[in-house]
C-alpha cells in the first residue's frame, strides 16, 4: 500500500433523518378549469389522473418558491430533531427561482438559521431533486459535508396560461415544496446504492419556457413568452419508454429485482405513465405512490412530496430499498436508489 492510498478514508454512509413538505393554500380544481377553457373533469382525469392542483398566491399570501421551500425545510428539520444551525449544506432544486440572483438556496439557508454555509440551486426541471440527491450523496460519502438538506420547490403555475391556447399544459401543473435532511454515518451500507442521470438536449423543443422571441421553436407568439410550451405527444412517448428503461438500468446496476424495492418514489407527471411502469415490472400499487390527483405535476417538488407522504403514512422503514425516479425538460431523466 502506498502513501497516497493511506490518506483516503473509507466511504461513509448517508442517512435520511427527516422530511417535510409545504403546499399553497389555493386549490384549482378541474371544475374550476371548466369555467376557464374548453375542457372537462372527465377529459382531464382520463388523460392525466389529476383532479386538482395547488396554486401559489404571491400577492395575497406572500407565497413563493422561497417561502414554500423554507416551510418545507423547517418541517423536515423539526422531524429530524434538528435546527438550521446543524446544517452545513443546502441544495434547492427548482426551475422557478423567485429571481435570477441570488440563488433560492442562499435565502432558504439564511431563513432557517443555517449561517454562512454552502448553498446553491440545482437546475434539472422535474429531475432537479433526483439530480441533487445524487450530487449530495457523492459529496457526503467523502465526508465533505456532514449534515445537509435538499429542497425541491417550484411554482410553475406562474408560467401557465388558463385559456384554450394553453389547454394541454394548463391542466397539468401545480405548486409545492418538499425537503429531506441527511447526515453521514459510519454504516457505509446506508444511502446511495446506484444512480443514473441522462439528458438529451436535441429534444429541448418538446418542453420549454421561452423567455425571448428567439427562443421559440416554430411559430413565434410573443403573447406566450414565459409560458410553458410542450409537445404533449412526444413527451408522453419519451416518458413511457424512458421511465421503464431507467428503472431497468438502475436495477441492473444494483443487481436486484423490482420486487426487492420497497418503494418506487416517482415524479408525478401523468398517472398513465406510472401505471404502465407498474404493469411492466409487476409492482403492486402500494409500492408506487400516485398522488398526482391531489397536486398535479409539481416539478422538482414532486418526488419529496411523495417521500413525505409515504413517511407520514408509516410506509418507509429503516433498511428499505427505495428508488427515486424522475424525467422532465431538457430532456432529462434520472434515478437514485437508496438504502434507508
Any overview of this molecule?
By secondary structure, the protein is α/β, with parallel strands linked by helices. The protein has two domains: 13-185, Peroxisomal Thiolase, Chain A, domain 1 (3-Layer(aba) Sandwich); 191-339, Thiolase/Chalcone synthase (Peroxisomal Thiolase, Chain A, domain 1), CATH 3.40.47. It contains twelve helices and 13 strands. The chain has helices at 3-6, 30-34, 41-48, 58-61, 65-80, 104-111, 128-141, 167-170, 232-254, 271-281, 292-295, 302-312; strands at 13-22, 26-29, 52-55, 89-93, 118-122, 147-154, 176-185, 191-199, 207-208, 229-230, 263-266, 321-328, 332-339. The chain has a five-stranded mixed beta sheet, with helices on both faces. The longest helix is centred in the last third of the chain and has 23 residues, at 232-254. The protein starts with a helix and ends with a strand. 46% of the residues are buried.
Amino acid at each position: 500500500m502506498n502513501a497516497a492510498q493511506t490518506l483516503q478514508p473509507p466511504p461513509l454512509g448517508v442517512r435520511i433523518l427527516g422530511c417535510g413538505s409545504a403546499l399553497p393554500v389555493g386549490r384549482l380544481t378541474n371544475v374550476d378549469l371548466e369555467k376557464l377553457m374548453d375542457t372537462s373533469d372527465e377529459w382531464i382525469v382520463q388523460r392525466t389522473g389529476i383532479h386538482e392542483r395547488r396554486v401559489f398566491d404571491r400577492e395575497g399570501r406572500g407565497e413563493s418558491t422561497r417561502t414554500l421551500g423554507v416551510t418545507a425545510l423547517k418541517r423536515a428539520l423539526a422531524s429530524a430533531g434538528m435546527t438550521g444551525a446543524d446544517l452545513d449544506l443546502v441544495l434547492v432544486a427548482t426551475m422557478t427561482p423567485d429571481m435570477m440572483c441570488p440563488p433560492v438556496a442562499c435565502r432558504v439557508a439564511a431563513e432557517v438559521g443555517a449561517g454562512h454555509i454552502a448553498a446553491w440551486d440545482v437546475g434539472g426541471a422535474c429531475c432537479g431533486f433526483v439530480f441533487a440527491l445524487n450530487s449530495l450523496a457523492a459529496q457526503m460519502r467523502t465526508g465533505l459535508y456532514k449534515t445537509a438538506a435538499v429542497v425541491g420547490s417550484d411554482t410553475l403555475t406562474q408560467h401557465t396560461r388558463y385559456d384554450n391556447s394553453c389547454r394541454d399544459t394548463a391542466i397539468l401543473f401545480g405548486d409545492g415544496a418538499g425537503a429531506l435532511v441527511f447526515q453521514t454515518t459510519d454504516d457505509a451500507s446506508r444511502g446511495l446504492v446506484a444512480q443514473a442521470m441522462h439528458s438529451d438536449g436535441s429534444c429541448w423543443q418538446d418542453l420549454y419556457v421561452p423567455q425571448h422571441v428567439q427562443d421559440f421553436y416554430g411559430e413565434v407568439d410573443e403573447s406566450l413568452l414565459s409560458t410553458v410550451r410542450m409537445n404533449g405527444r412526444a413527451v408522453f412517448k419519451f416518458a413511457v419508454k424512458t421511465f421503464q428503461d431507467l428503472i431497468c438500468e438502475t436495477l441492473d446496476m444494483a443487481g436486484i429485482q423490482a420486487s426487492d424495492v420497497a418503494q418506487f418514489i416517482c415524479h408525478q407527471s401523468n398517472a398513465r405513465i406510472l401505471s404502465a411502469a407498474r404493469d411492466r415490472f409487476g409492482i403492486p400499487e402500494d409500492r408506487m405512490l400516485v398522488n398526482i390527483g391531489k397536486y398535479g405535476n409539481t416539478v422538482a417538488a414532486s418526488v419529496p412530496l411523495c417521500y413525505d407522504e409515504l413517511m407520514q403514512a408509516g410506509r418507509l422503514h429503516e433498511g428499505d430499498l427505495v428508488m427515486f425516479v424522475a424525467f422532465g425538460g431538457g430532456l432529462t431523466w434520472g434515478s437514485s436508489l437508496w438504502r434507508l
